[in-house]
Every structure is written in C-alpha cells, then in structure tokens.
Amino acid sequence: MTTLIFWGCLLLFAAATLSERGAVGADDFRYVTGYAGPNYTGVHYQFTDYTPDLSVVQMDNTIQSACGVGIWMLYDTADYDLDHAWSVVCRYMAASWCASMGTACNTSSLRYAGSPYGLNDNYYNLYEDTIYRGKEFRGNTNASDVGDLDMDVSSLVVTGQSPWTFYTGLHYTGANVCVYPYRHSTNNDIHLDFAYYDKMDYLGMPDNSIRSVARGCLSDRVLGHPGHERRGLDDIN
Ligand SMILES: [Ca+2]
Ligand SMILES: [Ca+2]
Q1: Contact, 75 vs 129, CB < 8 A?
Q2: Domain membership of residue 217 as a residue range
Q3: Which residues does the chain have with pLDDT short of 70?
Q4: pTM of the shown model
C-alpha cells in the first residue's frame, strides 16, 4: 500500500500582484493560470473549469508555477484521484494567489471548489476522500441525501455567507454540526468567504458519516461562527 503523501501547499491570503491581472475586471471571475516555467513564465494556460486531464491541453506534469482567483485543487493524478491512487493534492484558497509548485505537485488534473455561478456564492462541496479527492457531491440548496456520497464523505469546503448544517442521518436527522465559512480573503474588489476541512476528524464527525445537508445553522455544535472567531481544528497557520 502506498501511503498518503500530503504536501503542505496550502496558501492563504496571498498578496498577489500578478501583472496580467489589474485591479479592474469582473470580481467573480474564477480561474487558475498554470505556467510551465518558474516565477510565472513560459508556456501557460488559463483554466476556468474542472479539468480532469491536463494532457488535453498539453500541460500534464508541466505546471511549475500558477496564479489564480478562488479555491483550486491540483492533483498529481488524472480525474481528481477517482481511482484512489492517494494522489498528492496541492490546494490554494484565497481571493487571489500565486504559488510556486516546485516538484510538489506534478499536476495532472485540477478543479475548483465553490459555486459555478459566482466566486463567493453560498455553496458546499463534499468529497469522497480526504483532501478533496475522488467523487464529489455539491450544491447550493438543502439535500435530504447526498447521492453517491451517502456515508462516504471524507472532506468538504463551504463558501459564501451562509452556514451549512451537516447530518449523519438522511432527511436532516442524526448527529449534526453547523459550519460557517468563517475565513475571509480579499484582494481589491475580490472577496471570498470559506472554510475547509481536509478530513472529518476536524469536524468532530466520524469519517463517512454525513448523509444530508441543510442551509443555515441548525445545530448546537457550531464551527467557525464569525462572532466567536472560533477557528477550525485544522488551522495550521
Ligand atoms: Ca502527475
Ligand atoms: Ca470516504
């Protein structure tokens, strides 16, 4: 068995001054530009959507540096580690960021977390495996079940202003926890509110236990309430 290797690629609140991106422009335009060279040089490609196979754009294992807006996960295997290869995942979460990959991420697939409709819309993303790997269940409304991820959720991201309540039972029953997108990242007119949980331990929930999701804070257990400045157990900074 291979062991999970996780590179601490998380970059928060980066002060990005990317030359190609000025202060003007749509404030909810999510993208990541990957460069084949260091320091944002060389052949590059701008991604704006889920990309399960970077070889399609001749960028497989090529990205050496990147800049982006929003929450992006870069996987060293294709298809976001759907095959459970224990992919290395580099994740970048900020209103605007730039990062050097070095040799940490031989990126072969990438995708974002958050709403497809707006950078800071209310949204949740649930993932099959830890660190945002594998299959996904996502949405912006209540879900009385989580489809294919029933009893399989192992990590999650929330974005926007609304808290979400996650339940261990179908139809909003069972043990529950409320999660606020309590982190705030801003760069010029770009704003991003979010919270992320690499694994369920950090939520105080058993792995593979979430079965339904409701919008709002409907639990006595509250994580990251903005008024309390309560920080998630996953804080590593
Ligand atoms: Ca790779
Ligand atoms: Ca799982």
Answers
A1: no
A2: 123-228
A3: 1-27, 226-237
A4: 0.86
